[in-house]
Write a structure and sequence with these properties.
single chain; 166 residues; mainly alpha; Hypothetical protein af1432; 72% helix
Length: 166
């Protein structure tokens, strides 16, 4: 079984019956992986990033159950304990689990981005959220200016959301 297959299957079981959330984390993971590779991340950082991308929205379900809302601040509060329990049960390295939980707890916080893994996770999530929310091009352009920092993330953004040419 591939490095991430068991985790992906656990997350699809966790999100069973919600194809939107399953497809969302799979797309975020794909973009995070691509940006991480293009940016030349070392193996440990890239692995941490990919795990975080797979579980980044794990706090949605407990937020909905507890508060009736999945706003980002609730996800950041409720996600890390659930992510920690899942990742520890699968035998992930505790230091990596701590970093993943940190990222899960801050993936909707866009100030004080701490590390390239955090930056790429935020960019990958926006690449998907812009499309899924049907955001208009002016708001998307502001996000590119204010959020995107990696060369690869900007290039992918431009290929996805640039005005259509002829």
């Amino acid at each position: 079984m591939g490095q991430f297959a068991q985790l992906v299957m656990e997350m699809t079981a966790y999100e069973q019956g919600c194809p939107q959330r399953i497809q969302h984390f799979l797309k975020v993971w794909a973009f995070a992986r691509l940006i991480g590779e293009l940016e030349g991340l070392d193996e440990d950082t890239r692995t941490t990033l990919e795990i975080a991308a797979i579980v980044h929205d794990i706090g949605i379900r407990p937020s909905l159950e507890k508060y009736g809302s999945a706003v980002g601040s609730y996800q950041e509060l409720e996600g890390p304990p659930v992510a920690r329990a899942l990742l520890e049960s699968l035998g992930y390295d505790l230091e990596m689990v701590s970093r993943v939980c940190y990222l899960v707890g801050r993936h909707h916080s866009y100030t004080d981005i701490d590390g390239v893994d955090h930056q790429i996770l935020v960019e990958a999530d926006f690449l998907v959220n812009i499309f899924e929310s049907g955001m208009d091009s002016k708001d998307a352009a502001k996000i590119r200016i204010n959020i995107f920092r990696t060369k690869a993330g900007k290039e992918i953004f431009d290929r996805l959301y640039a005005e259509e040419q002829g």
